[in-house]
Amino acid sequence: MAARAGLRKSARVFFTNPDMLHVSILPQHKAWKTVLSRLKLVVIDEAHMYRGIFGSHVANILRRLFRLCYVYGSSPQVVCCSASIQTPRQHFSWLVPHQSLQPAARTPSDDPSPNTNASPEITVIEQDKDGSPCGTKHFVVWRPTPPPVTSFDPNEPHNPDLTGSTIFQSAQILATLVAAKVPTIAFCRGRKLTELVVEYTHNVLRRQNQSHLIPRVKGYRGGYSVESRRAIEAQLFRHELLGVVATNALELGIDIGSLECTLHLGYPPSIASMWQQAGRAGRSGHDSMAVIVCFDSPLDAYNTSLGSAMFAKPPEPVVLDPTNLFVVKQHLQCASLEMDLLSPRSGTLDIDRPI
C-alpha cells in the first residue's frame, strides 16, 4: 500500500483500464487527488472496441472521471486511438464527455458560470491507408466439403469421417504451416474450439512424425493463469513458438513482427475484427497471408459468395448510447457516492453539452 501511495505522488504516466477506474480509482478519488488535479492527457487506446452496452458503460465511467477532474481543477485533453471506423467523430463524441466548464481552480466561487459559447472540438486525424507496418496481404478462403458423418468418437479426432470438418481441416492447415516453419496465429470463436484445434494440431504433427514441433504450438485464451499467459507471450516475442491458437484475446495490441500468417475458423464477427485479426501478421513489412476456413453456415456461405467484394467493404458503424437509462441509473448511484450530484462544485452541470 505504501508503494502504491508513493507511485501516486511520483509517477507521471499511468496505464489502467475502465474496470480499475470504476472499482478503485473513482471511488477512492481522494487518494488520487494529486493525480486528478494534475491530469493533462487521457489516451484511450483501441477506442473502437468501446461499443454497444460495454461502450455505454465506459462512456459513463469517463463522465464520472471528468467530473472529478473538474472538481480537482484539471481539464485534460483526450486522444482516442482507433482502428478504421465509419464515423469516428460521432463515435468519439459519444464516448468522451463534452465538458465545457472551466476548471474549478479558475472559478472564484462555488457557483461556476459555464462558458456557453464554447463548443467541444474534435479533430479527426485520418490516413488514406493503414498506417501500421505491413506488406501485401493475401487472403485465402477455404471451404471444406465434409463427407457424411456416420460415426463420431471424440477420442479419435483423426477419424476419416471427420477429416472434412472445419475444425480438423484448420488443424491440418496449421500443422502444415508449422512444419514449413511459417509462424502463424489461429483465431477461434471460444475457449472450447481453441483447445480442440490445439489438440488436433498436436495429433496431426504426431502422425506426421513431427512430434518435436508439438511444444512449439500452444493455445492462448482466457482462463489460463496470468503466469501461463505471460510465459506464452514471452515465447511469442522470442520467436520460440511457430503456432498459437487463440481467442480474440490476441486480436488487439500485439505487434509481433515474425508472424507471417493468420488462420481464422470461420469469418470473424465483423469487418473491423477481420482486419484487426489479419493485421497481426506481416507487421515486419513483408507480405503475409490470412486463411479463412469457412464453417458450414449460411453466414459464411454468404460472405464467401461476395468474393473479393467482401474485402472491399468498409467497417461497420460503431454504436453506443451513453444516455441509456438503465446504464445511467447505475452510474448515477456510483457518481453520487463519489461526490454530491447537485452541488455546483461537483462538476455535474453542463458536462455533456451536445455538439
TrEMBL record:
Keyword Ribonucleoprotein tagged:
no
- Domain (Helicase ATP-binding): residue spans on this chain: 1-103
**Residue ranges annotated for the Helicase C-terminal domain, each copy included:** 172-326
Give the SUPFAM superfamilies listed for this entry: P-loop containing nucleoside triphosphate hydrolases
> Short name of one Pfam family for this protein?
DEAD
What keywords are annotated for this sequence in UniProt?
A: ATP-binding, Nucleotide-binding
Query: Which domain of life does the protein's organism represent?
Result: Eukaryota
What are the annotated GO cellular component locations? Answer: nucleus
Any one GO molecular-function label of the UniProt entry: nucleic acid binding
Q: Give a yes or no for keyword Cell cycle in this entry.
A: no
**Positions of transmembrane segments:** none
| A biological-process GO annotation | interstrand cross-link repair
Q: What is this protein called?
A: Helicase C-terminal domain-containing protein
